[in-house]
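Annex B. Sample input.
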Amino acid sequence: MADARSGNLPHASSRKRSGAADDLDGGGEDFYKHPKKPSTLMPPPTSAWGDHDPAAALASVRHEFGEHGGVNMSIEASATFTVMEPETMRRMFAGELGPDRDFFIYSRHFNPTVLNLGRQMAALEGTEAAYCTSSGMSAISSVLMQLCSSGGHILASQSLYGGTHALLTHFFPRACNITTTFVDIRDFDKVRDAIVQGRTTVMYFEAMSNPTLMVANIPKLAEIAHEKGVMVVVDNTFAPMVLSPARLGADVVVHSISKFISGGADIIAGAVCGPASLVNSMMDLQQGALMLLGPTMNAKVAFELSERIPHLGLRIKEHCCRALAFAQRLKALGLKVVYPGLEDHPDHELLASIANKDYGSGGILCIDMETEERANKFMHILQNDTQFGFMAVSLGYYETLMSCSGSSTSSEMNEEEQRLAGISPGLVRMSIGFVGTLEQRWEQLEKALAGMK
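Annex B, continued. Sample output.
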């Protein structure tokens, strides 16, 4: 039997540099270098969709063993890293030696444990590389600041998470002189008309919108953007494993790992997944947004997340199974339910045509209670009387989380912006958990509905 510490197992690594001298010819990944100048980011070729299985891709990622042969990798908690020769440090800062050859300078730049999580995220999304950050918002803001310059223009969906909407509406114009036009991305003519030749550099939207669960036609939007030389950045926080935007034509995929990928509601983290050229440019010593803004992920956080990703597929399938069952039953009772797995959802057929097989239609559903007062009463009963779930923001937790979006996670948007995004005052967003039995939870939900009468 092969010894794990020998590195002879498939996809295994316990690589160490020589203790006697720096190994300047060490092998490693062919990305994550420190280029002297940012690389030119070109749209990757769009492959046929429907043949990507994220779980299979994750199983093919190189497995990192621990320092003493442990089945789990070691946590590299060092802030800084030593070298054996002074010349090595000069070469590292010159960009000649980097993490691709197992040379590390400082954990704000690159950290081995965080780098391993990046490999998992890249496999999950089917991209060449990924860099993990301290939050989802830091991932979003960093990649947009890397791709846009002062005076630049972003075309964005009018249906976005409230924090992202505020970033684009208020912060970027004031601090960066970057403006955004918001459009209904289902109207392709409006999308084309909103692209300003010579100024628009990014098209930004969510694969499945927060909170309205609109499914983006990623292949068509990517086609329109690329015809105009515009990069496509997609937030896939609501649909990991369900959708693979990079396989559908997106150039960059961003995540709030805090949600489904973490699953424990105990970690704040994000990720940028895309071409190695983009990740490398974002880590450039003079021009890199990640390098200079410093949204660094802690190595201990990266370790925790890397241990959760292998069972993400199992969790996502159960989230989605429960959400579909509840959506169908609530619909049969005559409630106004929003869920893309229902046949009457306007994007049902689109989702079925672009989703990865066997992962479902998402773990979130919405119930429109029409008024904020009714929404609040409903959530109060669900939490305090029937114990169905918790009134809390965020999503992807193993318990059901509920919030009235208009007065919480979308409160950064004014009434008109919420109306254009399709957010009604009584829209209750539910991130469906998977603890307990389905019938146990359904009984609790039914009792709450009875209490509303």
